[in-house]
Amino acid sequence: MIKNMIRFFVLILIVINILSCTKDQGPVEPEIVMTTVSFTDDVQPIFTNKCVSCHNTANNQFYGYLDLSDGNAYSNLVSVVSNGYAPNKRVTPNDSEHSVLWQKINNSLLYGSNMPLTGSLTSVEIETIKVWIDEGALNN
Which of 17, 72, 88, 106 has its CB 3.0 to 4.6 Å from that of 67, i.e. a possible disulfide? Predict the structure, then answer.
């Protein structure tokens, strides 16, 4: 009788031990917070530093009638039909692949010369513009 009770308690301990085991999930990774690319803080500074020397009000007629200066760039880009490439838009919100701007800075040659003509954008600058377009090309 005592042997049976010992066996019973051992069996209960084994069952409790098995039921209390959980799979180790490893270290808990912190949640990555996705941030929205800001036109004002992230995109416009790229245009100001790399594009406005040609794409400004004074040179407008020579460079596709595209003024990328602060205060003018957004309204000249988003959902605006591109001169020389109609009906394609300069920037198609949520669709970088069908945006003339993205194709011009991404070395595709689909819409003529790559931009900028002098110098180049860094991979981070190119990705910033792509993400901004794919996030909806917000005026933020």
Answer: 72
- Residue 1 predicted with pLDDT over 90: no
d(CA 121, CA 14): 64
Q: What is the pTM of this model?
A: 0.74
Q: How far is CA 84 from CA 4, 29, 81, 108, in A?
A: 92, 49, 9, 16
Q: What are phi and psi of 98, to 5 degrees?
A: -105, 25
